[in-house]
Design a protein that fits this description.
3 domains; four-stranded parallel beta sheet; iron; 433 residues; alpha/beta; single chain; 44% helix; metal ion binding; Rossmann fold; Ubiquitin-like (UB roll); de novo design (two linked rop proteins); iron-sulfur; NAD binding; 4 iron, 4 sulfur cluster binding
Length: 433
């Protein structure tokens, strides 16, 4: 079988719009599902995924198989309320700088559908939802087509592949807010409520959609599952470099020569992604820094280019791998204005459910605007640092505000002179006047 080193993108080709059911089956599609439901018990599927080392590709990097194993597996013939379980696909891809899930849904929708079915089998769920970003119209059309094809072929519905397993998948188009990407806010939105996050615990795997155990996984995460079951745990582990397992869609946007996405081994050096695959910086520009995993990650510097692109290695140098899609800061872009642009987005997308996020993000935006417009004071930098602490992990209902603070706190650390230049420059002008 060709392209076994790039399982996620092997069906994605420039000479066709997207992979049809026939295209997908011709490269081994739905063989993982066939193997799961005819040869493996649900707990065995969970263990395979756990042993593979697959970690969530949505940003948090939590162990996928471990998450599944936390789902209460009650007897379907008893009065146990846990007998009803749900699977939800988080396809609400609204992180600035991130566009990997869109590629997978638009170009190879059956890969996601097979991953959903295997996941549902593993936790014995009979209803699954794809919670899709509202602006992804092409993804919606192609997923609907693929769902219809899968039903017609017997991969969905009653007695899948002549087994006792039944599953229906529903496509739900989001109303469109960044907060819906937070799993408990997503659940509220799916229930028809306002998209506010819930306090945890209980976690969704115990009490999620309509109070039932619910597994929520990212699109890219689930696209790995069919290949793990089809080709085995050891094969998947060997795809990665060092301790990291599998492959990952890495991306780069900004002033690079070839912005885009590439499927590479987990643990690929960041330098290789930027210089080899993205083509390096555009002529006349130099790299000053980068956000390694979307807008809600800490800046790293050129000195970090040889860090491996995996969850643990990036965390050790003070940032997060996040979604694996780098946003490049060049030497002709002001980091203060770049951070302001991001903070304006996060402030707009706050649901307002908790005070630090509701009040702290607009305050952050006001201070940054004042600094850029020449009204800033040196003590404003201390106030910004205080806001970073106030909206840090553990002080808010969800990760929106802590994530929003990551680019700010690292910009204050690495680019403080840029902030001070606005303030000192304004003071000089006032004295001259």
């Amino acid at each position: 079988m060709e392209n076994l080193d790039k399982p996620l993108t092997r069906n994605i080709r420039p000479d066709r719009g997207f992979a049809t059911l026939a295209d997908y089956e011709n490269t081994g599609g739905y063989q993982g599902l066939r193997k799961a439901v005819t040869e493996l018990q649900p707990k065995e599927v969970q263990q395979w995924v756990k042993d593979s080392g697959l970690r969530g590709r949505g940003g948090a990097g939590f162990g996928t198989g471990l998450k599944w194993s936390l789902v209460p597996m009650g007897d379907a013939d008893s009065d146990n309320p846990h007998q009803i379980r749900y699977v939800i696909v988080n396809a609400d891809e609204m992180e600035p700088g991130t566009f990997k899930d869109r590629l997978l849904m638009e170009k190879d929708p059956h890969q996601l559908i097979e991953g959903i079915i295997i996941t549902a089998y593993a936790v014995q769920s009979h209803i699954a939802y794809i919670f899709l970003r509202g602006e992804y119209h092409l993804s919606a059309r192609r997923l609907e087509t693929a769902l219809q094809e899968a039903r017609a072929k017997g991969y969905l519905g009653e007695h899948i592949l002549n087994s006792e397993f039944n599953l229906e998948i529903h496509l739900h188009t989001s109303a469109g807010r960044y907060i819906c990407g937070e799993e408990t806010a997503l659940i509220n939105a799916l229930e028809g409520k306002r998209a506010n996050p819930r306090a945890k615990p209980p976690h969704p795997v115990v009490s999620g959609l309509w109070g039932r155990p619910t597994v929520i996984n990212n699109v890219e995460t689930l696209c790995n599952v069919p290949h793990i079951i089809n080709y085995g745990v050891q094969w998947y582990k060997e795809l990665g470099l060092s301790a990291a397992t599998g492959t990952k869609l890495f991306g780069a946007s900004g002033r690079v020569k070839r912005p885009g996405l590439w499927e590479l081994p987990m643990g690929t050096p960041i330098r290789d992604i930027l210089e080899e695959h993205a083509g390096g910086m555009q002529d006349g520009y130099k790299l000053r820094g980068f956000l390694p995993g979307g807008a809600s990650t800490d800046f790293l510097l050129p000195e970090h280019l040889d860090v491996a692109a995996d969850f643990d290695a990036v965390a050790k140098v003070g940032s997060r791998l996040g979604t694996g899609t780098m946003i490049i800061l060049d030497d002709k872009t002001c980091p203060v204005q770049m951070v302001l642009n991001l903070e304006e987005f996060f402030a707009q997308e706050s649901c307002g459910w908790c005070t630090p996020c509701r009040d702290g993000l607009p305050w952050t935006v006001t201070l940054l605007r004042d600094i850029i417009k020449g009204r800033g004071r040196m003590e404003d930098l201390d106030t910004l640092a205080g806001l970073v602490r106030m909206m840090g992990p553990g002080n808010t209902f969800c990760a929106l505000a802590p994530g929003a603070m990551e680019p700010l706190q690292s910009a204050l650390k690495y680019f403080r002179e840029d902030f001070e230049r606005y303030i000192v420059g304004n003071k000089t002008l006032l004295e001259a006047g």
